[in-house]
Design goal:
Layout lengths: L1 H9 L5 H32 L2 H14 L13 H20 L5 H34 L5 H4 L16 H46 L10 H15 L12 E5 L5 H9 L17 E7 L4 E4 L6 E2 L3 H18 L11 E7 L5 E5 L15 H13 L5 E7 L9 H8 L6 E6 L1 H7 L4 H7 L10 E4 L11 H14 L1 H4 L10 H41 L8 H19 L4 H29 L4 H18 L1 H26 L8 H14 L5 H15 L6 H30 L3 H7 L5 H19 L9 H11 L7 H26 L4 H6 L7 H45 L1 H7 L3 H31 L1
Parallel strand pairs: 1-6, 1-7, 2-5, 7-8, 8-9
Antiparallel strand pairs: 2-6, 3-4, 3-5
Helix pairs in contact: 2-5, 8-32, 17-32, 18-21, 18-30, 19-20, 19-21, 19-30, 20-23, 21-22, 21-23, 21-30, 22-30, 23-30, 24-28, 24-30, 26-27, 26-28
Length: about 900
């Protein structure tokens, strides 16, 4: 009708008075037609047997096919409501766009009022007639109105009185269930309003200044449990605080039960695969918003948003995978998280991996025993509340968890039994009475404080908590097993389970928490006594405090490193650089050029080799020398700090580890080598010795280098030729036959060098033949033995001659300056060039250290310290000893005791209020 009115409005406009009269007439017609329909329906239902019509409607509805599949194609209710509101607004706008003639409007209202009065009179008459019939004993429509049935013999009379009585009993049961449903809806509405009021109250509380906000009792208790888990992961005698331990066979629905209690699907789904691989501690508390948060994270996941829920499930799965190490399938590492929301019961639950019967190929072979031992460990706590989850859809004889629970708690004083998947059990079991036996404690040998039946889903992983809750309520409302009263209503639904578990949890907490506080107080006294007896003059520093002390000492040494003078840095780098390049200078540059025997050829070879060296190898070698010098200096400072009287030997391992890690990470800047290449080439290309002081310094440098090489050569010859005559007579040392042979060869080679002092580095073939002929050995003398003796012998001969020339060049600067006898002192000029290169390189390295590398090294040390500070395992590995362990334990015991006493005070305060 609305669309029709709209089309007429869009038609070509007529006269205004005609348009108004037509609209009023149509409105009056619609009202009359609707009223007449209502009259026939009401009078027909009241006088013609409304109950027969209702029963026919029920039979017709049952014969209809299941149309639930249309739900996935229908738009959500929110969109339908929005569309209806838009259409109402549009209708209102269209109605307001024209006015009805006042006379027609008055006439229509008068007729409508007359019809309303007539309808009220007829309705009152029908009600009075029905009341009179009820007084005469005919109130039950099922007994008054016969039901006609068609058969081959015609119409049959009404049902027998016994059948009518049965029908009436069924009707009364249905009415009772409807009343229960109505009252349950009222209770749910009131609970919803209560949660909203609590949320508003909590929001008002949290809106107060931060100093006035206090932690809730359950949060305080959860922090104590976290401290105990880190203090003693084996839950020995000192940790007897209550927890709700959720145990069950794999895929029995224990995680789903926990999710229903938390009112959020916070765990990943595995479709039969093991998903819970480590204990998950969930702290439930009341809050204005439904959020979840991990203990070690500041991020809150909004559980009302599907995206946050998906991210939370991925995070839980990732943490479980990361907790499993070393090829194991399950882990003892606890994943702690909190869930807050309006109306949640306050408690702490620990979800454990499901108990399995068979180890599959993708599991570690000890997985079954590991899960069993873990479950026994948690249930072994004498104050732990065991939430035993049993799958109701499988045979009771296949259960593993019930035997395990009965062994730990044979009297059932702290066990709550939960039967899941009851909807599937009622459909699948041939004898549904077994469910009643289970919930009455007459089937399983185990005992329990209470027995509960729950339905935690329809087998669809995408169902929301609200959908599952409605499905559960609908099942228990229609189930024959639970409708006949054999199972009490308090034993069903996760809501009742949550209330029962919370009540049991807090009862046990109040009974045990003060005893735990006293136990930790006694433990603290014992530890303090041990400390006073063994470490009377030491402060009680735990690992964190010791680490901060070591951090301060290491950073102080970095400050001392910046106090090293420029001369100290340059001398250090010059020595390190020469140690690195000296072998190359002698073996690849000086010896080949000096043994050429030609002054021009000497200079040419030196220039070529120096240029090649400076282009390819020298810059990077210089950087490596600077890197090594900087690190050696830092190590020297650290060593001094470690052996000082104020140093704490407990910190030495940590300091060494930090230093080693830093040195491995520190790399000299790449551009430093390019800068060094330029200044080194300039220094090596300068052949002019500027003054006498430089000349003398170069000569001294050359002499020292020659002496060092000559000493090395003499030692090599001594090993080659054996003991000297003095050593033979005074120390009774003897030469080997091989050394005796090489001594004989040495005598022949000395003759050759004596005859020709300017001999070339290589022996001639005829000289080798002469040596062999002179020796006349019984066996053939290999050429290699002769060369092996000749090389160090000639090297010594060359170094002695070079050293002699260096002595002669001490006073040769004037002759060098005048260009006289310059060829004899070419090696002095070479070493002056090398010396200048070392000086400018050392100065450049010192500038790089002061300007860049020391600060970069300081930053890298701070980064390493930061990494070590966050790595608890690293600190436990490096900071060891009884003193450290005792201080660490004493601090943790004090902290836990203080937390317990704070919780006891808050608990007593709440009880008093």
């Amino acid at each position: 009708m609305l669309m029709l009115s709209r089309k007429r409005l869009l038609a070509p406009p007529a006269a205004p008075h005609v348009h108004q009269q037509r609209g009023a007439a149509m409105l009056i017609g619609r009202l009359l037609r609707g009223a007449l329909k209502i009259r026939y329906i009401v009078l027909g239902g009241a006088l013609g047997g409304g109950m027969t019509l209702q029963k026919s409607y029920e039979e017709w509805k049952e014969k209809l096919p299941d149309m639930k599949w249309l739900e996935q194609y229908m738009p959500p209710p929110e969109k339908i409501d929005a569309f209806r509101e838009n259409m109402i607004k549009l209708s209102s706008n269209l109605r307001d766009s024209f006015e009805i003639n006042p006379k027609l409007k008055q006439l229509g209202e008068q007729n409508y009022q007359n019809f309303q009065d007539w309808f009220d009179r007829r309705l009152n008459d029908a009600i009075e007639a029905t009341a009179k019939e009820d007084e005469n004993g005919f109130s039950d429509n099922f007994l008054r109105i016969p039901v006609a049935k068609n058969n081959s013999q015609g119409n049959t009379p009404a049902a027998a009185p016994t059948e009518n009585l049965t029908t009436r009993l069924e009707r009364m049961q249905d009415e009772l269930m409807q009343n229960q449903l109505k009252y349950q809806k009222q209770v749910d509405r009131l609970e919803k309003e209560n949660r909203e009021l609590r949320r508003q109250l909590l929001l008002r509380k949290t809106g107060a200044p931060p100093k006035k906000v206090k932690k809730s009792l359950i949060d305080m208790y959860s922090e104590v449990l976290d401290e105990l888990s880190e203090f003693d992961s084996n839950y020995n005698t000192q940790d007897h605080l209550p927890r709700v331990v959720v145990v069950g066979d794999q895929s029995s629905g224990k995680t789903s039960v926990l999710e229903m209690i938390a009112q959020a699907r916070i765990f990943p789904r595995g479709a039969g695969e093991m998903m819970t691989r480590s204990p998950v501690k969930v702290t439930l508390s009341e809050g204005p918003y439904h959020v979840a948060q991990f203990k070690d994270s500041n991020r809150e996941f909004d559980l009302t948003k599907e995206q946050d829920l998906a991210e939370l499930r991925r995070e839980v799965e990732l943490r479980m995978k990361n907790s499993v190490r070393g090829g194991h399938t399950v882990s003892h590492d606890v994943i702690s998280m909190s869930v807050k929301g309006p109306g949640l019961q306050r408690m702490v639950l620990v979800d454990l991996p499901g108990i399995i019967s068979t180890v599959t190929q993708d599991m570690e072979r000890h997985t079954k025993d590991a899960i069993k031992n873990m479950s026994q460990l948690y249930m072994g706590n004498p104050n732990a509340i065991i939430l035993c989850i049993q799958d109701g859809s499988v045979d009771a004889e296949r259960s593993n968890v019930t035997d395990l629970v009965s062994q730990v708690d044979p009297q059932g004083r702290r066990t709550i039994f939960v039967l899941t998947k009851v909807d599937m059990a009622e459909d699948n079991l041939a004898n549904p009475d077994r469910i009643q036996k289970i919930l009455s404690g007459r089937l399983f040998p185990m005992k329990a404080l209470g027995y509960f039946a729950v339905v935690t889903g329809r087998g669809r992983k995408d169902d929301s908590i609200q959908t599952i809750k409605e499905h559960e309520e609908q099942f228990f409302r229609k189930s024959k097993l639970f409708k006949d009263g054999r199972i009490m209503s308090a034993q069903v639904t996760t809501r009742n389970l949550s209330l029962a578990v919370s009540e049991c949890f807090w009862k046990m907490v109040r009974e045990t928490v003060e005893q735990q506080a006293d136990a930790f107080k006694a433990s603290r006294f014992n530890l303090e006594t041990e400390w006073k007896n063994n470490f009377p003059r030491q402060r009680e520093l735990d690992r964190d405090e010791l680490f901060e002390k070591a951090r301060g000492e290491i950073l102080d040494e970095m400050v001392n490193l910046s106090q090293v003078s420029a001369k100290q840095w340059e001398d250090l780098f010059m020595q390190r650089l020469w140690d690195k390049v000296s072998n190359y200078v002698f073996e690849r540059i000086y010896l080949p050029a000096g043994q050429s025997g030609n002054s021009g050829q000497f200079n040419t070879m030196v220039d070529i080799k120096l240029r090649e060296w400076a282009d390819l190898q020298l810059p990077m070698g210089s950087v490596e020398a600077g890197w090594d010098g900087l690190h050696k200096e830092l190590q020297a400072f650290m060593k001094k700090s470690s052996v000082s009287k104020d140093s704490d030997e407990v910190l030495n391992n940590l300091k060494e580890a930090v230093l080693l890690e830093t040195l491995q990470k520190h790399v000299w800047e790449d551009k430093a080598a390019d800068m060094l290449r330029v200044i080194q080439l300039n220094a090596l290309e300068d052949r002019a010795v500027h003054d006498k002081q430089h000349w003398d310094s170069a000569v001294k440098f050359l002499e020292q280098c020659l002496k060092d090489r000559l000493t090395e050569t003499e030692a090599h010859l001594h090993d080659l030729l054996g003991p000297t005559t003095k050593e033979k007579w005074m120390y009774w040392q003897y030469a080997t036959p091989e050394q005796q042979l090489k001594n004989s060869i040495r005598n022949e080679l000395d003759k050759i060098l004596y005859k020709d002092p300017t001999h070339r580095p290589k022996l001639k073939a005829d000289e080798i033949t002469t040596i062999k002929g002179n020796l006349q050995t019984e066996q053939e003398l290999p050429d290699e033995v002769i060369h092996e003796t000749w090389d160090p012998l000639y090297r010594r001969h060359f170094l002695r001659n070079s050293l002699q020339r260096a002595f002669q060049c001490r006073k040769g600067y004037w002759m060098y300056q005048q260009g006289m006898a310059a060829d004899e002192c070419n090696d002095v000029v070479l070493f002056w060039r090398i010396q200048q290169m070392l000086k400018v390189t050392s100065k450049a390295l010192r500038q790089q250290v002061v300007n860049r590398e020391a600060r970069r090294l300081d930053k890298e040390i701070k980064d390493v310290l930061e990494d070590f500070g966050q790595d608890r395992a690293k600190k436990e590995q490096l900071l060891t000893g009884r003193r450290v362990q005792l201080a660490e334990k004493l601090k943790r015991v004090r902290h836990i005791q203080e937390k317990l006493e704070e919780f006891v005070q808050a608990l007593n305060k709440e009880k008093a209020n």
